[in-house]
Amino acid sequence: MREQLLISSMFLIIFVLAGMWGIQQLNRQEKMLLQQLGKLEQQIKQVRFLSRELKDVQRSATASVMPQALSSFVEKIARSIEIQDNLQLNVLTNVQKGTEGVKVGLDRLKLDHLMSMLYQLENHRPVLRTSHLSISISPGNRQVRASFQVHKQLGG
Fold first, then answer.
1. Pairwise CA distance, residues 2 & 12, whole Å
2. Beta-carbon count within 10 A of 102 CB
3. Are the CB atoms for 113 and 83 separated by under 8 Å?
4. In whole angstroms, what is the distance from residue 111 CA to residue 88 CA?
5. Rounded CA gap, 10 and 8, in Å?
6. For the chain, what percent of residues have pLDDT higher than 70?
């Protein structure tokens, strides 16, 4: 009887120890899965944010087409900076299909005025693209001569 009690208590102790070990393993696995879940939730938030941002960019890219002619817009900027007398515009004929382009020439210009003009063109919405910038400086009178091209996407 005593031996049976001793054997059954040993089985009970082994069973309890095995149960505790199993619970520890489950707790470790649960912690690991919770960490992975946190990382995945963060990635899902990031994907959702980027998806919204992409939709906003697509919406603004398709919705924002400049209604006025590019040359008129460049003249308007020159008038706002009060450099319209220094401005010469030539419409570009050999431009990529679906775009409009003008060559801008500016003469006897202060560097601040040139920077203001370029800033307004580069930061305009819808996006305009400037290229082929050439600047020469007159050392005596501290004025610059500049030429560059401006392109815009056509609607439709």
1. 15
2. 22
3. yes
4. 17
5. 5
6. 92
First vs last C-alpha separation in the chain: 97
Q: Does residue 87 contact residue 133 with C-beta atoms inside 8 Å? A: no
Task: State the pTM of this model.
Answer: 0.55
Question: Whats the size of the chain, residue-wise?
Answer: 156
Element (H, E) at 117: helix 111-122
pLDDT per residue as tens digits for the range 36-78 = 999 999 999 999 999 998 887 766 654 445 677 888 889 999 9
Alpha-carbon distance values, 30 to 26, 40, 143 (Å): 6, 15, 71
Query: Among positive and negative, which fits the CA dihedral 33, 38, 43, 49?
Result: positive
Phi/psi at 79 (5° precision): -65, -40
Domain range list for the chain: 1-63, 70-153
Q: Which CATH class is domain 70-153?
A: alpha beta
Report the pLDDT value the prediction gives residue 149, as an integer from 0 to 100.
Answer: 92
Task: Map residue 125 onto helix, strand or coil.
Answer: coil
Instruction: Tell me whether residue 21 is exposed, middle or buried, using C-beta atoms within 10 angstroms of its C-beta: 0 to 12, 13 to 18, 19 or more.
Output: exposed
Cα angle 4, 7, 9 (rounded to 5 degrees) comes to 105
